[in-house]
Amino acid sequence: GLVLEVRNGLKLGDKIEIMTFKGKNIEIELDQMFDFADVPIESINPNQLLKIPYIEEVNTHNIVRKMGRLS
To answer: pLDDT value at position 52?
Structure first.
């Protein structure tokens, strides 16, 4: 999976945008999130590490930003 350093809280259902170094940005809805013991979680607080499923186009040090919740 991918490891993200969370600067603002996130919840399941939030939409994030991953800004890649090449090509288009990737928008995903957080439908799965895990802590470092691979236990599924529903939300995470700022200044913690989060695991999400692997996305092939994402590289180390890509920037991720929260876009809001999908309705």
So the answer is: 96
